[in-house]
Amino acid sequence: MQKEDCFYLGRIVKKHSFKGEVVIKLDTDEPELYGNLESVFVDLGNNLVPFFIEKSSLSRGTMLRLKFEGVDSEEDADAIQKAGVFLSLDFLPKLTGDKFYYHEVVGFNIKDTSFGIVGTIKEINDSSAQPLFVIDREGKEVFIPMIDDFIKKVDRENQIIEVTTPEGLIDLYL
User: Fold this and answer.
1) CATH top class, domain 3-91
2) pLDDT tens-digit profile of 90-134?
3) What pTM does this model have?
4) Which CATH code fits 102-173?
């Protein structure tokens, strides 16, 4: 399995017992969707390795306690500490309307109601306080905050996100 075919589910943050159980901090708004998984992919040395789950339980919000097959000791659990955990994109529920997954809209065009076509989304920057569309416009980067009030329409069929931005925002970058 390749990373581009997967989405980031969370990170192994600690051991739970001397029998190899681990706790994953889920990166999701809906942790209950992931309480009964059969397997996950664990990022070990830039390889996604499948791990099969013997038992799992959700605890305290976004914490998922797992017992993997073959991880039977503290030493085994230590070997996978801090590793990223991934699932196949097939596990994501389909979103409709103006809701979207970040990976889903990379490659879409951004169209501003006043400006017109701004450019193509090359990535989503979610490391700042406000997630941003990072848009390529003929080699120049344009940043548009991903604010619900700005996003007017998500057209999946034509791969266009229509936005209304404050006057002059786009011109700042051009």
Assistant:
1) mainly beta
2) 888 787 888 888 888 999 999 999 999 999 999 999 887 889 999
3) 0.68
4) 2.30.30.240
